[in-house]
Amino acid sequence: xxxxxxxxxxxxxxxxxxxxxxxxxxxxxxxxxxxxxxxxxxxxxxxxxxxxxxxxxxxxxxxxxxxxxxxxxxxxxxxxxxxxxxxxxxxxxxxxxxxxxxxxxxxxxxxxxxxxxxxxxxxxxxxxxxxxxxxxxxxxxxxxxxxxxxxxxxxxxxxxxxxxxxxxxxxxxxxxxxxxxxxxxxxxxxxxxxxxxxxxxxxxxxxxxxxxxxxxxxxxxxxxxxxxxxxxxxxxx
Length: 237
Hints:
Blueprint: E1 2-8, H1 15-23, E2 30-36, H2 43-49, E3 53-56, H3 60-70, E4 75-78, E5 83-84, H4 89-99, E6 104-106, E7 109-111, H5 115-130, E8 143-146, H6 147-152, H7 164-173, E9 178-180, E10 186-188, H8 191-196, H9 198-214
Parallel strand pairs: 1-2, 1-4, 2-3, 6-9, 7-10
Antiparallel strand pairs: 4-8, 5-10, 6-8
């Protein structure tokens, strides 16, 4: 069984789109786990409507770890809530994963938005493919990994403030077979660049890449990277 793990926090506008794209897949041997960080909107209600298992989460790293703790599958697929899978994606990625006898893999993504976002997507995909043997990348929850590898790594490092997924992939590469798989790209929202600005967001990613390579994991708030600041705060009733 494949365990699909999705960390969430106030994702009612995006989660149903991702879950619809999962339900339309031709591959059906999966469970969906939503690790929710106390959403104040209808995120949990939507997850339950789609038959997802819901567990208490936190920031992305913690959410993924908490979801993995209750997962029944021997293979984990970590996704972000603002993604949409292309048709037949699960069948394609699993076939390539097993044919190449991999332990962990990542895949292309495509930012929704304008031509600049499209170009940045292609640039990232090129860089991830070119560096897969020496400097693995796994941007935005694009990770497929065996359960035993995840457990050996003791999950994602919850102390890391930014790029914890890249660090996770690089640690895994040292003890497991890793590859960047050529598949149809997974569509991901460009809401961060719309909220924070394109230049600021992409330059921050560039600096984070330089920092992780030259210094190490980002465990301070040096980049002031915010989460779930896309919508106005929802008041509890």
